[in-house]
Amino acid sequence: MKKILIPVMIIAIIIAINEQSKSDKNIYIMCVAIAVFMFGMMRLSAKTPSKNQDNTDENDNQTI
Question: pTM (2 decimals)?
Fold first, then answer.
């Protein structure tokens, strides 16, 4: 899934930057490109473990 998601996000950002550089900007294309990028970032960051997860595990073990 990550192999597909990263290129899609890169393409969305390229489209958004390209659309921003035009003299007649289409706001709908930019909004969709940004929404695709944000959705991709959400999906990628959901699999990243939290830094605080280790601390809460240690705190739980100490209270027992």
Answer: 0.67
